[in-house]
Write a structure and sequence with these properties.
Elements lengths: L4 H18 L6 E9 L2 E2 L5 E6 L2 E7 L5 E2 L9 E3 L9 E6 L2 E8 L5 E3 L2 E3 L32 E11 L5 E4 L7 E8 L4 E10 L13 E10 L10 E11 L10 E6 L4 E3 L2 E6 L3 E8 L4 E6 L32 H22 L1
Parallel strand pairs: 1-9, 1-10
Antiparallel strand pairs: 1-2, 1-5, 1-6, 3-4, 3-7, 7-8, 11-14, 12-13, 13-16, 14-15, 15-21, 16-20, 17-18, 17-21, 19-20
Length: about 350
């Protein structure tokens, strides 16, 4: 091995390390502030879209005239997603495809006031202001870290969350496996975005394979990051359908699985109805994230069975053999450091 080979090996290791962490989503940033259109306060319902480069990373709709989000902890924020290596990237804000006069730099986890102004924004009616129809407020705008090339299609609805009042959210795009949600919130969050993404394959946000034979992979996002948890969601019913032609004997019983951040957990799933072409099911949950509809090859929990749900203050028992998640970025960093030190020592001895 000569002196030219060592730097080449180090370079390859560095490039590989950078590639492996580039797609890791980080904690979103959150923005709030004032918004004016042609010198006037933007009306309620104005949708603001945040982009890094040409890629949409978050959106929110104004609830009151002239402002979006708010500084308080419970206040909604314009959540903007970013990935490893994107700290310091420019965030551009848009209304009706017109960019704001101001931009900001993205920092993971930062909550920041950004007052934005727009010039030349018009609606379909020809006047300033107005929204684009699918934004959010209250619980906040939806942010998804799913890469666009893995999304078959997605649909967003805005609903009004009031504590204890069930809300039905229907999705109408052809081909949806999940066609309806019934959500009972614990909090009054006002207008809140609900997004469903039907995926081409397993979500890129999970780190293990789904058990069983998979029918469809879906992401369901509600509100701003961190909103769709048991503290805010009393009950969620996911209604989905499967073509009967897929339901062969070797598929086994049907269940919906939810990714909890480290494992796939089966939800309480039950068959509700059936016709000549489609069978209908319901699954129960109190959190929303990546899901999968799977033929389990075993017995699905019967309706009414209680699934364990992590609640604030509750003790969660973890099997002793289950190892904590591996921090691959840290491991890669250590490998790179060792390679650099080894190369330096080798060159010094030469």
């Amino acid at each position: 091995m000569n002196k030219k080979t060592i730097p080449l090996i180090v370079f390859i290791i560095l490039v590989s390390a950078g590639t492996s962490v580039a797609l890791n989503p980080l904690i979103p940033a959150g923005y709030y502030g004032s918004i004016t259109l042609d010198g006037q306060p933007a009306p309620a319902g104005t949708t603001i879209i945040a982009k890094i480069g040409a890629e949409e990373r978050g959106r929110i709709s104004t609830v009151s005239s002239g402002s979006y989000g708010g500084p308080g902890g419970p206040d909604p924020k314009l959540g903007v997603l970013g990935y490893a290596g994107e700290n310091g990237s420019i965030v551009t804000f848009y209304v009706n495809n017109v960019a704001a006069q101001q931009t900001t730099t993205w920092t993971s986890g930062e909550i920041k006031q950004v007052d934005i102004t727009f010039v030349g924004v018009t609606t379909a009616g020809g006047g300033p202001g107005g929204g684009s129809g699918s934004g959010g407020g209250g619980g906040g705008g939806v942010v998804s870290g799913e890469p666009f090339d893995n999304i078959e299609f997605q649909e967003t609805r805005t609903v009004d969350f009031r504590a204890g009042v069930p809300v039905t959210v229907s999705f109408t795009l052809p081909g949806h496996a999940v066609y309806e949600l019934m959500i009972t919130p614990n909090v009054s969050a006002g207008p809140t975005d609900v997004m469903i993404q039907q995926l081409k394959g397993t979500s890129k946000l999970v780190s293990s394979q789904i058990p069983g034979s998979v029918y469809k992979n879906v992401n369901i996002w509600i509100g701003s990051p961190g909103f769709a948890v048991p503290a805010n969601i009393r009950e969620g019913i996911i209604r989905f359908r499967i073509n009967n032609s897929w339901l062969t004997d070797d598929i086994g019983d049907i269940g919906m699985m939810r990714w909890d951040g480290s494992n796939w957990n089966p939800l309480d799933t039950g068959q509700k109805n059936k016709d000549d072409n489609v069978t209908y099911y319901e699954a129960m949950t109190t959190s929303f994230s990546p899901f999968a509809i799977s033929g389990m090859g075993g017995t699905v929990a019967t309706p009414g069975a209680t699934q364990p749900v992590a609640t604030p203050g509750a003790t969660v028992t973890v099997p002793p053999e289950q190892a904590p998640p591996i921090n691959f970025a840290l491991i890669i960093g250590v490998i790179v450091l060792i390679a650099i030190v080894a190369a330096a020592l080798y060159l010094k001895r030469r």
